[in-house]
UniProtKB/TrEMBL annotation:
Protein family (similarity comment): Belongs to the class-III pyridoxal-phosphate-dependent aminotransferase family. LysJ subfamily.
N6-(pyridoxal phosphate)lysine carried by residues: 241
InterPro entries per record: AcOrn/SuccOrn_fam (IPR004636), Aminotrans_3 (IPR005814), Aminotrans_3_PPA_site (IPR049704), Class-III_PLP-dep_AT (IPR050103), LysJ (IPR037537), PyrdxlP-dep_Trfase (IPR015424), PyrdxlP-dep_Trfase_major (IPR015421), PyrdxlP-dep_Trfase_small (IPR015422)
EC number: 2.6.1.118, 2.6.1.124
Protein name (Swiss-Prot/TrEMBL): Putative [LysW]-aminoadipate semialdehyde/glutamate semialdehyde transaminase
Amino acid sequence: MSEDQYLGNLYQRFPVTIEKGLGSHVWDTDNNDYIDCMGGYGVALVGHRNERVVNAIKSQIDKVITVHSSYYNKTREEFLQSLIAVAPPGLSQVHLNNSGSESIEAAIKFARKFTGKKKMVAMKGSYHGKSMGALSLTFNPKYRESFLPLVEKVSFSSYGDIDGLRTVVDKETAFVILEPIQGESGIHVPPEGFLQDVRKLCDENDSLLVFDEIQSGLGRTGSMWASEHWKTIPDIMCLAKGIAGGVPMGATLVRPDILSVMKKGEHSSTFGGNPLACAAGTATLHALTQDGLIDNAKNMGQKLFNGLEDLKSKHKIIREVRGKGLMIGVELKFEVKDILMEGIKKGLLLLYSGRNILRFLPPLVISEEDIVKTLQILDELLTNEENRKNA
């Protein structure tokens, strides 16, 4: 694990050296096979080495890799057309960037410029990134406290509590930002009616509504956008993670009247919209819309959720199962670190949220066979953990 001497202490590291991947599986340098329920924190959306994405990348490399957005490019145009074709109604313009944090930063600037207001409201439990603007909207003190003061005029309200939100949103609020399903804080699904009520509250105060669909969007929850489950359309939507099949890309979707207030040069991205990422992005969107991956996320997600609920009835260590589609959290009564490490030994890569929540973000191509095997391994891991706690 010689990377550590160069990368420092910035990442939680696991003792696996991944050599290759295919679909919902990865292999280490000793050719050990793992079911990947971590999925690169959701980046491996359409599967490792998705055939459409690989072929698109190979083809684009033989043409041109980088073209700045001050020039036109047909590959970029094709991607933009494909993205807007599946975007929520009204969000017909895009700023292309390279990551989730960059997408959030763009949203902050667009919303504040359009409204002329400075106040921003985010949710408790939120995660929007670690660059300074995005970090200012991220709730967890462990990410924030070393970098105070952050951007001013940010308030936090309890997720799902519309009455509490009404006490902090007013006519001076530029925007409210939220994840339709909270991810990093443990997969929290909003109560029925909450998103619709937030939409109405924003309209009443001439404030914009920003949805962070970086983790929940693009089919992850069994619908193209998580917000579709509650039939709510934002003014700005932030995307990244798996949007280009593993190639770095972010996108900020926006209403044209909002983007129209920005002057040339007020916001840009050197790498944003490069043809390589755009080719991969178009292939990713085609995989989602033409290969049945969104339906698979819905169906396999339901099988996984039901199986986890069965495990909950068997294992008292499980407190709650939450989520939609293939975005699922399992809250335990103890820390999950030992389960994560033991899972590696049994060929299962899992993700965590905080100290006591297992998070499942597998590729949307995952098979029923892999769901069954995942549940079998997790059953063993939970049994072993309970035996250790009771020893």
